[in-house]
Write a structure and sequence with these properties.
single chain, 317 residues, alpha/beta, D-Maltodextrin-Binding Protein, domain 2, 2 domains, 6-stranded mixed sheet, 3-stranded parallel sheet, 9 helices, binds 2-acetamido-2-deoxy-beta-D-glucopyranose
């Protein structure tokens, strides 16, 4: 399969656009209220169902499991069942986005910036997904990858990239209730693991010898930097209520640590935002142990087509 990496020249525009859209709508549209950011239609619901069916077909296979093992060795190999959303919609009924994918033979996947592991994992898995779609529908579908600059805000630029038609699907985001108000997460899940948060400090810090597993309250009253608007913040707060979390853009976490604005920086150990920088910056040391949060389930997300499943029928296609 061929693919192209398209540089995100639209990222700056997208960020401005995003700020405006966010101010207008908020990211937390109330259930039952139509979110003005919603632009999906039945074709997006069909696309979600088709991708979901492809995922249920590949995720027990050797090819997928070896990609999973390589990039997310701590992930479980058992997935929540998803029969309800795992059947291919008939090509004859294809509309909107789904009809275009079948006609043009191109499916556009949005990938995050500065996240090599996640990019590699997704490129490999997305190739398996389009192969399954191609063979089911008897057409040649190629994946196209678009990198979206999500360094300032982790999630919203992706919702907007889908809403403006720059990407059709995301296959790497963690499912959260809040996100499920603005993208369609009804697909079968792809990755499932227990989230653990690790903490890094300067090697000169007196905290450097701390073992978080042995002493989970060692950071109580300390300031710890986490990525801006990150999905695991509320779980982290529940697990370690004494830690003072301070939100920073991903690229600003290490500088904040070096400038002494925070005592430590934290992220999800399985490829979380900022991880690569923490591992490669000299002078940082990871504390022994971790904070164990809860399950992290990742599924494919497409354009949102209705606040309460009224449009989607929740996988009933
Ligand atoms: C950290 O603490 C845990 C729990 O007490 C212990 O099992 C583990 O061996 C410790 N790690 C180190 C490197 O001492
Ligand atoms: C996490 O996921 C696994 C596998 O699906 C499941 O067995 C377990 O009960 C889940 N744990 C929690 C806390 O939800
Ligand atoms: C190291 C690296 O990949 N840096 C990139 C991080 O993302 C920004 C914005 O997309 C790129 O400009 C950098 O090259």
């Amino acid at each position: 399969m061929m693919f192209a990496l398209v540089p995100s020249f639209f990222a700056a525009v997208l960020l401005l656009w995003t700020a405006a859209a966010q101010a207008q709508t908020g990211d937390d549209a109330q259930q039952g209220e139509r979110d003005p950011a919603v632009v999906g239609d039945i074709g997006d619901v069909q696309l979600n169902a088709a991708i979901s069916a492809a995922i249920s077909q590949i995720r027990d296979g050797e090819a997928f499991l070896s990609v999973l093992d390589e990039h997310f060795p701590t992930a479980t190999k058992t997935f929540p069942s998803c029969e309800a959303s795992a059947s291919y919609p008939p090509a004859a009924e294809a509309e909107g986005t789904f009809a275009e994918v079948l006609e043009d033979g191109v499916l556009v996947f949005g990938l995050p910036a500065n996240a090599t592991t996640i990019q590699q994992f997704n490129i490999e898995v997305d190739n398996l997904i389009v192969d399954a779609l191609s063979s089911h529908y008897g057409v040649d579908i190629s994946p196209k990858f678009v990198i979206v600059d999500n360094l300032a805000d982790f999630f919203v630029p992706f919702r907007e990239a889908m809403n403006v038609g720059e990407a059709d699907v995301l296959t790497w985001f963690t499912v959260t209730e809040r996100r499920a108000h603005s993208v369609d997460y009804t697909s079968c899940s792809l990755v499932n693991f227990v989230n653990e948060v690790g903490v890094w400090v300067l090697d000169s810090s007196e905290l450097a010898g701390t073992n978080l597993t042995a002493k989970p309250d060692a950071l109580d009253g300390m300031k710890v930097g986490v990525c801006d608007n990150c999905f695991y913040i509320s779980d982290f707060t529940k697990t370690a209520p004494g830690v003072l979390l301070e939100e920073h853009a991903v690229f600003d976490m290490v500088p904040a640590l070096k400038q002494g604005k925070v005592d430590g920086v934290a992220t999800i150990l399985a490829g979380g935002p900022g991880l690569e920088e923490f591992l490669t910056t000299a002078g940082l040391v990871k504390l022994e142990g971790s904070f164990v949060l809860g399950n992290d389930t990742r599924a494919a997300a497409t354009r949102y087509a209705g606040p309460d499943g009224a449009v989607t029928g929740q996988g009933g296609l």
